[in-house]
TrEMBL record:
Its main location: membrane. The keyword Transmembrane helix applies. This is Cation transporter. Residues 223-289 form the Cation efflux protein cytoplasmic domain. It comes from Phycicoccus sonneratiae.
Amino acid sequence: MSGGHSHGAGSHAGGRHRWRLAVAFGLVGAFFGVELAAGLVSGSLALLSDAGHMAADVVTLGAALVATRIAARPDTTGRRTFGSYRAEVFASGLAVLVMTGVSVYVVVEAVARVGAEPAVASTAMFVVGGLGLVVNLVALALLRGGAGESLNVKGAYLEVVADTVGSVGVVVAGVLVATTGSALWDTAVALAIGVFVLVRAVHLGREVLAVLGQHAPAGVVPDEVLRALESVEGVGDVHDLHVWTLTSGMDVATAHLVASGDGDRVLAEASTLLRERFGIAHATLQVETVENHHCQGVDW
């Protein structure tokens, strides 16, 4: 016996927040070219590093948008029995790689500049950094509403968070360079931005690997799920329990229940328990009777 559920195109978290990604993508993409040109003209590493983060934003937001479209697309092959929802997780993985690459480049370039005093245009840093900050704050306000529900949106949100910090850093660096006359502040701020982004990338990467590794969902303890299922009236034993995350907002579970009495009632109560107590709406449960308990499970 099993409890099955189908998911429509708009039922996954990323699909519900696609419009947020689209608007943020348009804003960030429009500003990226301006900041890159200003960074090249001014010679500011902080401004170039922020432009690099903007480029990462464009790639990340674009990949996130494509992923939500793929995730909502119906399977025509008959082979993707779970659909294409994992596309959003892979997009988050791309965000991790882009953030890491940009961070490493900025850190290496900042270290290489130690001891040098390149000419830096502080006015361009201040003005462009300020405009970038405004763009990033708007994008943050848009993406924050979906970051708590979708790992895909969270990846884009964290990328914009990092870029917002970068924009603040550019403004601060511009002020310091202008008041002290030393370009060392530009290098120091760029280094700090690079390290900050790298830490955020590692944190998001751990979440992505947890999903791809089919770990138990955050906040769900398998032993607690096991004990809860065993407490269902009529259930004498629970085995072959597996709990994992398909994509953000879609936790999945399978289990074998050894039960006596009405199997349909046991199945209904167990499914309701998983949905209401643990937020697992898609559960496949096999009910085995005590009298004819011959588990046909796999041997690994």
